[in-house]
Design a protein that fits this description.
By secondary structure, this protein is of the alpha/beta class. Helices cover 36% and strands 13% of the residues. The two termini are 44 Å apart.
């Protein structure tokens, strides 16, 4: 299905919308529908988060207190599913992590579907946005919702639309990002298109939920594979004595057939380290091996180990051992501009350096505490005061990296933020 819908369509009566899961995906979505004029019910299991939102204290970087205030009276918050019986559409934005053995863990999503089935009513639209493997909407979610006694496609509509939130990035906005949608039936698809036209400038229909589910996985597998490739290139370039950043800059001048990716200490967040394994797990159910995808995952998982070895060699170069050395990590979030540490490679680096006897500290204005590691973020000046090595692991917009370079005796830059500098005490990945 190759058509594209670009113009918003406003009906006289805007739908009431329920959003289940008010995290990095669900909260911006709920605010967007409220700002479009819809009455929105946000469901969040964490009571403390619900209270914070009622007090206009957002806990994700992409939503401000001013934005919450702007939708007062339109956006309400609850921990229960009962109010969803009075909305026209429900969007599920529940976590889908990997369990032991990198097996998809759909427990939160399926529990949400069971709870929704208890209040589901005729005529409602349900859309799943959680990242998952192809077949989940049709084979897992639909049967649970039909336990309500209602039939999908006849009594209620069901669709899948992958989230495309990039935490910490304000551009492109949610409205500017094309929305992919796949419905179980043509009627389901049309309902979902009409819903997302309210908040997105372009809606891209596909032929089925499975196509939409695979679209999301492909987008992130594409990034994972290319990041693995450039990480491997960085390791090769180091052995050859070549500046990998110079090579990337030069290759990026090609006006066609090349897309820039940059090396780093590994992958983090709720998507890139996880989504490729959803696809490989699903493929194995059809006796297919995804060696290319799994190899990329392994390469990216090895990068923290490579970075720790690089730190050891950097310290050895000035006559210091890692044991007893004071090492400061500049940034521990998985990416710049956010406080999310899920799957952050910095955490693996902390674990590995700790096992080697390093004395560790960190500075991250977005992550005040790492309780599991017994660490708190130090002011930058204090963190650098007596350090032996500063490792730049995350590039935040509010950190003065020139100050880091000027006040640390030794710097290991794992993100290339200092590549314009040629200083003897600065070492790059």
């Amino acid at each position: 299905m190759a058509r594209s819908s670009n113009q918003p369509s406003r009906s006289k009566q805007l739908p009431a919308v329920g959003v289940v899961g008010l995290g990095y995906v669900g909260l911006p979505l709920a605010v967007a529908f409220a700002r479009a004029g819809c009455r929105v019910v946000g469901v969040e299991a964490n009571g403390r988060k619900v209270q914070a939102l009622r007090e206009r204290r957002p806990y994700v970087e992409d939503v401000t207190a001013q934005e919450l205030a702007s939708v007062d009276g339109l956006l309400s918050y609850t921990t229960g599913y009962e109010p969803l019986a009075r909305v026209d559409a429900v969007i599920l934005c529940l976590p889908t992590p990997l369990g032991p053995g990198r097996v998809p863990d759909l427990s939160a999503l399926l529990d949400g579907a069971r709870s929704l089935a208890k209040v589901l009513r005729k005529g409602q639209l349900v859309v799943l946005e959680s990242t998952t493997y192809p077949g989940t909407t049709r084979e897992q979610v639909a049967p649970l919702l039909e336990e309500s006694g209602l039939a999908v496609g006849r009594d209620f509509n069901l669709a899948y639309s992958p989230e495309r939130i990039d935490p910490g990035r304000r551009k492109p906005t949610l409205a500017e990002t094309p929305k992919v949608v796949g419905g179980l039936t043509e009627g389901c698809l049309e309902r979902a298109i009409a819903l997302y036209r309210l908040i997105c400038r372009e809606v891209v229909p596909v032929s089925s939920p499975e196509a939409a589910e695979l679209t999301k996985l492909f987008e992130n597998v594409f990034r994972s594979v290319n990041i693995a490739l450039v990480n491997e290139l960085a390791v090769i370039a180091e052995r050859l004595g070549i500046d990998v950043w110079e090579v990337i800059d030069a290759a990026s001048t090609k006006p066609y057939g090349f897309m820039r990716f940059e090396p780093g200490p590994g992958l983090g967040g709720h998507c890139l380290p996880i989504d490729p394994f959803y696809l490989s797990w699903r493929a194995k159910q059809f006796d297919l091996q995804t060696e290319f995808i799994e190899l990329a995952g392994k390469l990216n998982q090895q990068m923290p180990y490579h970075c720790v070895n690089k730190a050891i060699r950097t310290l050895n170069g000035v006559g210091l051992a890692v044991k007893g050395a004071r090492i400061v990590l500049i940034g521990v979030a998985y990416k710049g501009g956010v406080g999310d540490t899920r799957e952050s490679p910095a955490l693996k680096i902390i674990e590995l350096l700790g096992e080697l006897g390093a004395r560790l500290a960190y500075h991250d204005p977005y992550v005040p505490e790492l309780a599991d590691y017994g660490l708190r973020s130090l002011p930058l000046e204090e963190a650098l005061a007596e350090c032996d090595l500063a490792m730049i692991t995350t590039v935040h917009p509010t950190i003065d990296y020139r100050y880091v370079v000027d006040h640390a005796p030794l710097v290991l830059d794992l993100r290339g933020v200092t590549r314009s500098l040629r200083l003897p005490h600065v070492v790059r990945l």
